[in-house]
Design brief:
With 242 residues, the protein is α/β, with parallel strands linked by helices. The chain has two domains: 129 residues, Response regulator (Rossmann fold); 89 residues, Orthogonal Bundle (Arc Repressor Mutant, subunit A). The strands form four sheets. A five-stranded parallel β-sheet has the order 2-1-3-6-7, sandwiched between helices. Strand 1, helix 1 and strand 2 form a beta-alpha-beta unit. Helix 6 crosses helix 8. The longest helix is centred in the middle third of the chain and has 15 residues.
């Protein structure tokens, strides 16, 4: 999962980055509205954490532009982030401020200072709602992934996964049965500027198959990878998917 943090305080940004990475997120940080808009225009994100008092304006302006897909010039906006979950994090603690933020399109609102564990819990709840899930865990056959506990069980037995392996499995399970390209998976696992080996995704997929079974993740040659739904009948092999 990839998070964009829009926060002008370097100390807070650094702390958030550490907490989010520990929670399994790939993280990018922007300190201004313009930088955030530029990043959203070229990179895919799963969630945004948005401060309001920024050097070049109010975070609510960015939120309004995002929700309405409106370019400043009035031209057509190709941003794919219109429905991306947004968590406002700010020192503005008045009831009217919270109402304004939520009515402007935010999915949640947390007042600084806040506990990092509460922030992560709020993000999990937002992403759960965005994916249409009600359960806190993700189940697929006899596989159970718990985003909060950061654990995976297969047939009742815990399986140890590396951080990137867990993030890749979570991304594929949440998108199932959609096929995700290697570049999309790289974007979900690695922040902007992070070094990514050319075969990193293939290596992570190989490790997941070795630990969880060869049939879990399918390959569509020349396209990408996917996890089939439990009942979609794609559990076997074919000339295109394996």
């Amino acid at each position: 999962m990839r998070a964009l943090v829009v926060e002008d305080d370097p100390g807070i940004g650094s702390g958030l980055t550490a907490s989010l990475r520990q929670g399994g997120y790939a993280v990018d940080v922007c300190q201004t509205l313009d930088a955030a808009w530029a990043m959203l225009s070229v990179e895919p994100f799963d969630v945004m954490l948005l401060d309001l008092g920024l050097p070049d304006g109010d975070g609510l302006d960015l939120l309004a532009r995002l929700r309405h897909r409106r370019e400043p010039s009035g031209g057509r906006d190709a941003l794919p982030h219109r429905d991306m979950p947004v968590l406002i994090m700010t020192a503005r603690d008045g009831v009217s401020d919270r109402i304004s933020g939520l009515d402007s399109g935010a999915d949640d609102y947390i007042v600084k200072p806040f506990d990092a564990n509460e922030l992560l819990a709020r993000l999990r709840a937002m992403l759960r709602r965005a994916s249409g899930r009600s359960k806190p865990v993700i189940e697929h056959g006899d596989l159970v992934l718990d985003p909060a506990a950061h654990t995976v069980q297969l047939a009742g037995e815990y399986v140890t996964l590396g951080g990137k392996e867990f993030a890749l499995l979570l991304t594929l399970l949440q998108a199932r049965p959609q096929v995700l390209s290697r570049s999309r998976l790289e974007s979900a696992l690695y922040g902007f500027g992070e070094t990514v080996e050319s075969n990193a995704i293939e290596v992570h997929v190989h490790h997941l198959r070795r630990k969880l079974g060869e049939s879990l993740i399918k390959t569509v040659r020349g396209v990408g990878y996917f996890v089939p739904r439990d009942d979609d009948g794609t559990g076997g092999t074919s000339t295109r998917a394996r």
